[in-house]
TrEMBL record:
Name of this chain's protein: glycine dehydrogenase (aminomethyl-transferring)
Organism this protein belongs to: Sphingomonas liriopis
Keyword annotations from UniProtKB, A to Z: Oxidoreductase, Pyridoxal phosphate
Domain called Glycine dehydrogenase C-terminal: residue spans: 384-483
Lineage: Bacteria, Pseudomonadati, Pseudomonadota, Alphaproteobacteria, Sphingomonadales
Pfam families, alphabetized: Aminotran_5 (PF00266), GcvP2_C (PF21478)
Length: 524
């Protein structure tokens, strides 16, 4: 590509190399082609006009710049248009259904945003005297009460800032409890094969050794294998319920009893709480610690790395070890922040502190707004509708795609398919890429690892039947093409700004820095 001195965006080849009816700009109607900012700009100029200063001599001395700074040299409107055009290439939950499994990408009610932006919540500072932020602390406290109520647990640590951070919080509570009992020698954490990668990573990070527990053919934890492995070296088990195959772990209570009898603790990965909220209380299943991804179960826009919030509910046995600070409502209604200084007597066994301040205030406000606007009956309906929608997807597509656990009964919040009946040479990746041409973000692929070529679809409760029908139609059409051996699918997507990329090369040798091409090429 040439460096374009005029700032006019150069003509680009269509993404699929198909020049049948190219446009002058490379744009296709409102789908605008976009080059790198350095390719549309000019590094030898600046986009800003500064008058020459009449200051005598520079005060920077040796530090003054000797060569141009190498910015793209665009004017303000050109810069804004570049980033706006790029932003329009994002797929978002506000554009269409986002079928990613395990991520719970649901509609985020605008009411939550409105409340989170109220100045009394948005403009407070964590170092303000507690007397001046009683309302904000009240939100944290009230949300804590709801989370304890919904989970049937004893206490909650509000400060962790993501699901994975919550896992670490829970496992550190378990570690502190074992040390207090003089059983710090228990070093093994048992994790089912289907677990999210953060589970073994958390246990290893906290200094434990991770051992896999196999799954049964119906996609659940092999309870007998788990029980057989329990013993004096086992610190805890980490179980996801509902699990990442979209199935309820029916044996969890029996597993918890066996783990407790053997002296260990039960960590539950609560990322899928969306499917059981208002219906099942993890505390009744013998869970000792469970994180709740507020950004999954209780809305909040997420994706692209944040924001997250992962409060951890704790059993009576683990609550004394939870982190600081936390809020407590005093008899006179005043909310106190229990910090190190005050904790000496009240909370001597705390393992310490996980975050600088109290947690993600904006997300607490959104989650509490979501909970209060749904009410107890509405939250129960969230779970019922999420499960209904996933089963509709599962039953609509089981004749098209292989559904490995369809025979085990209804699924929970997500439906899982495999690549088993695609034509020779066609893969899950081809189906995912084909969905992009249909205007959908692909589902989660190749996870969980226990299913070959897994396609994990989580529609969530916020999709209508019409939206589900359109998605099902698109996925069925792409799957039929993959079963019929339609070779065009091998190079999909054809209608996206960029066609099939070499993702392995991109991951192994990412090119993250733009280099100015040599002059000869630039003049081309
Ligand atoms: C999302 C997820 C996590 C990690 O949560 P983050 O908030 O992304 O850190 C852990 N386990 C499961 C099953 C998940 O789906």
């Amino acid at each position: 590509m040439s460096i374009n001195q005029s700032g006019w965006r150069p003509k680009m080849t269509a993404a699929n190399g198909n020049d049948a009816a190219p446009t002058f700009t490379g744009n296709r109607a409102l789908m605008l082609e976009e080059a790198l900012i350095f390719e549309i700009g000019d590094t030898s100029t600046t986009g800003v006009d500064f008058a020459e200063g009449d200051v005598a001599g520079s005060r920077l001395g040796d530090l003054s710049r000797k060569a141009p700074i190498g910015l793209a040299g665009l004017s303000e409107p050109e810069t804004i248009r570049h980033y706006t055009r790029l932003s329009r290439q994002n797929y978002a939950i506000d554009l269409g259904l986002f079928p990613l499994g395990s991520c719970t990408m649901k509609h985020n009610p605008r009411l939550n945003e409105k409340v989170a932006r109220l100045p009394g919540f948005a403009d407070v500072h964590p170092l303000q005297p507690v007397d001046t932020v009683q309302g904000a602390l009240g939100v944290i406290n009230e949300l804590a009460v709801w989370l304890i109520e919904l989970t049937g647990m004893h206490g909650v640590a509000m400060s962790p800032k993501a699901g994975a951070h919550g896992e670490l919080c829970g496992i550190l509570c378990i570690k502190a409890a074992l040390e207090k009992r003089g059983e710090g020698h228990r070093k093994v954490v048992l994790v089912p094969e289907s677990a999210h990668g953060t589970n073994p990573a958390t246990a290893a990070f906290a200094g434990f050794m991770v051992e896999d527990i196999p799954a049964t053919a119906d996609g659940r934890v092999d309870t007998d294998a788990l029980k057989a492995r329990l013993g004096p070296d086992v610190a805890a088990v980490m179980i996801t319920n509902p699990n990442t195959c979209g199935l309820f772990e029916r044996d969890l209570k029996a597993i918890s009893d066996a783990v407790h009898d053997a002296g260990g603790y039960v960590y539950c990965d609560g990322a899928n709480f969306n499917a059981i909220v208002g219906r099942v209380r993890p505390g009744d299943l013998g869970v000792d610690a469970m994180h709740i991804n507020l950004h999954k179960t209780f809305s909040t826009p997420h994706g692209g790395g944040g924001p997250g919030s992962g409060p951890v509910v704790l059993s009576e046995a683990l609550s004394p070890f939870g982190p600081l600070p936390f809020t407590a409502r005093m008899a006179d209604g005043h909310i106190q922040l229990i910090e190190e200084e005050t904790a000496g007597d009240d909370h001597p066994d705390t393992f310490g502190r996980m975050t600088a301040f109290h947690g993600q205030m904006g997300m607490f406000t959104r989650a509490l707004t979501y909970i209060l606007s749904h009410g107890a009956d509405g939250l129960r309906q969230v779970a019922e509708d999420a499960v209904l929608n996933a089963n509709y997807v599962l039953r609509s597509l089981e004749g098209t795609l292989d559904a490995p656990f369809a025979a085990s009964g209804p699924c929970m919040h997500e439906a899982i398919f495999s690549d088993a009946n695609l034509a020779e040479g066609f893969s899950t990746l081809d189906v995912a890429k084909g969905l992009i041409d249909e205007g959908f973000h692909p589902m989660t692929v190749y996870f969980p690892l226990v299913v070959h070529g897994a396609m994990l679809v989580e529609p969530t409760e916020t999709e209508s039947k019409a939206a589900l029908d359109q998605f099902i139609g698109a996925l069925r059409s792409v799957a039929e093409r993959a079963k019929a051996g339609d070779t065009a699918l091998k190079s999909a997507p054809h209608f996206a700004p960029r066609a099939r990329l070499d993702e392995t090369l991109a991951a192994r040798k990412p090119v993250l820095v733009w280099k100015e091409p040599p002059l000869a090429q630039a003049a081309e």
